[in-house]
């Protein structure tokens, strides 16, 4: 019976390259969104438009989301220490969770405000609202384009920031439509209706990001990996009779981890099995960090609490 911990660091360079792209994308988007948010808050107050103010509220959460995401990536680059053996990489997921919860809270507040406006639609300066929301749409399109150049598909943190911006873009579209309806038809109720539509879109994004980040924080199996599939691939190794006590989780987006026990037959060679197992995990499943305990079948699992799960 023996224990081995193996790493492969083949993707180190591409990961750091991706991080510098993400930092650049998040920083530029942050400057854009934060600047325009101030314009939109002033515009929303001057024109008395809830649609603009809800959009500005969403932009505030965008700016906070982008700032938090940027801070998380910077913090994640800090080296591992004796007290934080994985470094600060997990903070990216905490940031994504905070972003998701913020989106939900903002949307609930917009619902509350809109409810009061339905019964008593206030006077809105629709011309000013139209100009500001059109500029807002262009700013959001530019921010979304910048974020698309980061790895939003693989990095939950960047994706949560990207979803903030997309929701905001739709908010600007809603505000433009509401302004046009008020200009041409005098529909004061269009303003709270537009803000409710925005709130629905925001809450959907918020729930999705929160759910994904909580799954990672709860050490859930990464969505792209099937536990049974990984197990059967390891069982196909010659001289392996059993695979048990298997756990697959993520530290942060794109960093899956695995630990398991492999029981080998009498004729099995420890190092050969270990090498084959780590090659399968790396090549077929993209798992670079694995801890594998190889044990002889006839001796059973050396667990002090009886059999392993």
UniProtKB/TrEMBL annotation:
Residue span, Cation efflux protein transmembrane domain:
26-218
The Cation efflux protein cytoplasmic domain covers 224-296
Transmembrane segment boundaries: 25-46, 52-73, 93-112, 124-148, 160-187, 193-210
Protein keywords: Ion transport, Membrane, Transmembrane, Transmembrane helix, Transport
Source organism, top-level taxon: Bacteria
The UniProt entry, under SUPFAM superfamilies, shows: Cation efflux protein cytoplasmic domain-like, Cation efflux protein transmembrane domain-like
The reply on keyword Transmembrane is yes
Say yes or no: keyword Flavoprotein present.
no
* Chief site of localization: membrane
Compartments where located: Membrane
Which Pfam families has this protein been placed in? Cation_efflux, ZT_dimer
**Topology in the membrane?**
Multi-pass membrane protein
- NCBIfam families registered for this protein in UniProt: CDF
User: Per the similarity annotation, which family is this?
Assistant: Belongs to the cation diffusion facilitator (CDF) transporter (TC 2.A.4) family. SLC30A subfamily.
For this entry, the protein name equals Cobalt-zinc-cadmium efflux system protein
